[in-house]
Amino acid sequence: MGIGCGVGATWLIYNYNSYRLNDGFTVCIIKNVTGIPCPSCGSTRAVEALFHGNLIESILWNPFGLLLTSFLVILPVWILIDLIKKRDSLYTFYSLVESYLRQKKYTIPLISLVVANWIWNIYKGL
Fold this sequence. Notes:
- This protein is mostly helical.
- It contains 7 helices and no strands.
- The chain is globular, with a radius of gyration of 16 Å.
C-alpha cells in the first residue's frame, strides 16, 4: 500500500498543473485498448481538482477521486504510525473490511455503485 501511495502521489505531483488539459493522453489500459473509459477514469483529474479546491469539479470528474484522496492522505500516515509503534492495525482493519466485503449485502451495493460510476464515465465521454 505504501508503494502504491508513493507512486500515486508522484504521479499527482508530476501532473499537478495539467489537470484541466485534455490532450487525449491516458494511462488507462482499458481505455487505450477498448476506447471505453473504465470506472476509475478521471480519478487523477478528480484528485487534482480537489487539491486545487474545486470540490464540485472533482465530483464531476469522478466521485472515486474523493475516496482516492482519502487513501492518499490517510494511508501513508497510518503506515508510518504502524511502523513506529510496531503494530499491524492497518492490516487488521483491512482484514475486517475484507470480511465485510465478502458478504452479499455489502458487495452488491458496492458493485452497483461501481457500475453506475462506469455508466457515468461513458456518458460523460471520458
